[in-house]
Amino acid sequence: MTEAILVTGASSGIGRAIALRLSRRTPVIVSGRNASRLQETVAACSGKTFLLQLDLTDLAALEPVVTSLLTEQGLRITGFVHAAGIVKVQPSRMDKIDCLAEVFATNFFSAVELCRILCSKKANEKRLASTVCISSIYANAAASGHAAYCASKAALDSYMRALACELAPARFNSILAGGVRTPMSKHALTDPAIAARLAAEYPLGVGEPEDIAAATDWLLSEEARWITGTALTVDGGRLCRA
Amino acid sequence: MHALYEKIAEILELDEVVDSDKVDDLENWDSLSVFSILAHINTEYDVTISTEEMERIVTIGDLVLIVAQKTGNT
């Protein structure tokens, strides 16, 4: 059996940076919706890499798809990184349940379902040892127009803490990521007015996906073996500014 | 562009918007609504409208025209 780390949201941005970094030291399963962009990630990875095309909003399909890959490739997943996430910016008066459900399915419920599958004896022989979910500083700080996103990330942090207590010695942590340069944010960051505002808000400036990847790699590793149930802030000092 | 008019109206809680509507006269035209409209345009049309461009917009028609021009739908 080959031990591997599963990374969701690996087709671009933070997820891709994490997959690339982890692939230097371990086999990686890169997961995402867009097959062609996933192929680009696979091509950029260093070691043995497996591609898993997944629509995380199709929750019922996750178990059969993941189980098939593990069986066919002789894999067991010992590390899990949930980097997939979507943002819907809209006034809270537009937050109807079906709209919230879409955000929660990708950002939260899919992580819950994947944790359940990977912790099971049947699918993965209970081999999951360490999980890191990419959360956001907006889990703890308000942002107008982001109510669903904020709530979904806060749910993720809380769920990691609960699993850390219930499923030890498996470890569950999250990262409260600040603003980084990704395809999702690059349009805004090219606007001089927005770039100037962010420069003033971030003592260390806006981050790069690799900054989140480095923290994720460390949290997954044995060096962090006594850390569980923690939400680690990686935000260039954004939250410490009054 | 019909869908864009509908989305703008939905965000602003209006039955409809038309080209001649002056944005500063629309009751819910505030920073959050503007941010939401720009995010929608970015996601659905892959169009970025800068802060500078927004400052020059007077009517709904001006906004839709920018999107149309940037998507080649003029």
Structure report:
The complex is a heterodimer of chains A (242) and B (74). Chain A is 44% helix and 18% strand. Chain A contains 9 helices and 7 strands, in the order E-H-E-H-E-H-E-H-H-E-H-E-H-H-H-E. In chain A, helix 2 (35-44) links the parallel strand 2 (28-32) and strand 3 (49-53). The model of chain B has no long low-confidence stretch (mean pLDDT 91). Chain B contains 4 helices and no strands. In chain B, helix 1 runs antiparallel to helix 2. Chain B is mostly helical and 74 residues long. The chains are: A alpha/beta (242), B mainly alpha (74). The interface between A and B is medium-sized, with 16 and 16 residues.
Instruction: Determine the N-to-C terminus distance of chain A.
Output: 50 Å
Total helices of chain B: the number is 4
Largest sheet of chain A: 7 strands, parallel
Instruction: Write down how many β-strands of chain B occur, each being a DSSP E stretch of 2 or more residues.
Output: 0
Helix content of chain B: 55-70%
SSE order of chain B in H/E notation?
HHHH
Round the Cα radius of gyration of chain A to an integer and report it.
Answer: 17 Å
Number of strands of chain A: 7
**What is the helical fraction of chain A, as a range of percent?**
40-55%
Largest sheet of chain B: none
Largest interface, counted by CB within 8 Å of the partner chain's CB: A-B, 16 and 16 residues
Class by helix and strand content of chain A?
alpha/beta
